[in-house]
Amino acid sequence: MSEKARHYAAAVLGAIAVLSLATRSRAPTPAPDDKPARLVLAGKFIGPTASSDAAAVSALCDELARIIQEDGQSKEPRLKTGIQFDDLRITARDMRMQGESIGDRQPKARDEICHFLNEAVGISGGPISPEQRAKWVDAFFEIAGAASRASGK
Predict the structure, then answer these.
(1) Is there a domain that residue 140 lies in?
(2) Contacts of range 69-74, beta carbons closer than 8 Å, 24 or more positions apart
(3) Domain-located, residue 125
(4) Model confidence over 21-54: pLDDT tens digits?
(5) Would you say residue 48 lies in a domain?
(6) Environment class of residue 72 by beta-carbon count within 10 Å: exposed (0-12), middle (13-18) or buried (19+)?
(7) Full residue range of the structural domain in which residue 76 is found
(8) Where are the alpha helices (DSSP H) in the chain?
(9) Cβ atoms 137, 65 nearer than 8 A
(10) How far apart are the C-alpha atoms of 105 and 102, rounded to whole Å?
(11) What's the predicted TM-score (pTM) here?
């Protein structure tokens, strides 16, 4: 791994840790009442771990939305491309879930979330405009709210 890649990984993990501590006590942001939910995950999480899996997805997506939002408000954002957003998502998921794959355990929820993200933000890995960043933030908050509602908590 190059020195630049190590610095990037360390910065991402540091940001996740700081924002995780800052946001852990906050409830996920549900979709505003005046706007219908674009994503419904009720019934997509199944089995004995359904509620805890949905709660974990909710917390993770809430953190990702806040990280991307905060980064965009800085003078020189670190996250500038769709590929970096996806790398952040994968790194955060791997770190938070400690190697467990909720997607493997909850394929219906995984597929619904994947379809929703593709529709909401597209599949481009290129540069992110402020408008595109806002779409990512909204999408992650939407997933957080839908997963929270699905968890029943």
Answers:
(1) yes
(2) 69/133, 69/137, 70/15, 70/19, 71/15, 72/130, 72/133, 72/134, 72/137
(3) yes
(4) 444 444 444 444 556 678 999 999 999 999 999 9
(5) yes
(6) middle
(7) 3-26+41-151
(8) 3-23, 50-73, 82-97, 102-105, 107-121, 130-151
(9) yes
(10) 5
(11) 0.76
